[in-house]
Amino acid sequence: MEPGEWVTEAAAGFGMTVEIREKLCCRKSQFQTIEVYETAKLGRLLMLDGIIQLTSFDEFAYHEMMANVPLFAHGGARRVLVIGGGDGGVLRELGRHPELEELDICEIDREVIAAAREFLPGTACGFDDPRVRVHIADGSVFVRDKAGYYDVIIVDSTDPGGPGAPLFNQDFYRDLKRALRPGGVIATQSESPFLLPELVARLNAATRACFRYAGYASIMVPTYPTGMIGMSVGSDGRDVTEPALEVPPELARQLRYYNTAMHRAAFARPNFVQDMTGGR
After folding, report:
1. Residue among 3, 24, 16, 157 nearest 82 (CA)
2. Contact 72, 234 (CB under 8 A)
3. Which end of the chain has fewer surrounding CB within 10 Å, N or C?
């Protein structure tokens, strides 16, 4: 690639452009196009069907929050399922928790895992944990056969188009609830209220319809369009906006983004997001 070449994500009337040094990978799987780039400033960049999934510059923010918010909202999880997350970043963060006994991941596209292992070892190291069991399947189908099994389910999905489409409807949220043990927690990637307000409102409504306690948490991620993304968190057990536990000192030393104050603060909503997600 020539110096000064750029790659752009363009969707929903918005875009993000990143300077590239080298294209490391371009593969067409059964489901999507997988690209990995070496960037000029942001380390390595993963795109699926032209949409930025992560850069090594700031992926820690997203992955730490997606893993730790539901774990600390629960307070005693032992069995965790990740749906999607083929780059391994959520698994890496879950692996920092020695109390977890089972770490299942259900990823529909084995080629995403293969590309991450080859080109993104800093995230794909999550697959090396001996507690991890990999299931190559459609997560919306896989979860239906797991009634009452998991303490926490994390949906680290792509955007609504393509293979992630079945993960963005209320029937799926009901299936997630059935797969939880009593007091279980879900956390689902729920987009940006600036970019996709109708989808944020719909996913938040689905969470609130299924769970006694629900909230929408914001995560700052500079290389996502609008600079942030959200997650919907739900439980019948306890208020998900309040951590059940303090972060142990040995874990705190490993984290760059998540802490107890950030857990609480992530659920604070600007007025327009309050209007979008259930009123003030």
Report:
1. 157
2. no
3. C
The rounded distance, in Å, linking the Cα atoms of 24 and 120 is 11
| Count, residues in the chain | 280
The span from the CA of 158 to the CA of 224, in Å, is 12
List, in order, residues 6 or more apart from 148 with CB less than 8 Å away: 178, 179, 180, 181
* Per-residue tokens: 279: 């009123």
Burial category of 279 from C-beta neighbours within 10 Å (exposed 0-12, middle 13-18, buried 19 and up)? exposed
Burial profile 37-70: b = 16 or more Cβ within 10 angstroms, e = fewer: bbbeebbbbbbbbebbbbbbbbbbbbbbbbbbbb
The pLDDT-based confidence of 13 (bands split at 50, 70, 90) is confident
Whether 129 sits among the annotated catalytic residues: the reply is no
Tell me which CATH code domain 5-55 carries. Answer: 2.30.140.10
Catalytic residue among 58, 151, 156, 159: 156
Helix (H) or strand (E) segment spanning residue 236: none
CA distances from 210 to 40, 172, 193 (A): 44, 10, 21
For 63-104, the pLDDT digits (tens) are 999 999 999 999 999 999 999 999 999 999 999 999 999 999
pLDDT in tens, 107-156: 999 999 999 999 999 999 999 999 999 999 999 999 999 999 999 999 99
Every domain of the chain with CATH number 2.30.140.10 lies at: 5-55
Report the alpha-carbon distance of residue 41 to residue 8 in Å, rounded.
15
Q: Which residues contact 66 (CB under 8 A, 6 or more apart)?
A: 90, 93, 154, 156, 187, 189, 219, 231
- For the record, the structure tokens of 227 come out as 């600079």
Both tokens assigned to 185: 């927690």
Which residues of the chain does CATH 3.40.50.150 include?
Answer: 59-276
**Residue 149 CB coordination number (10 Å):** 17
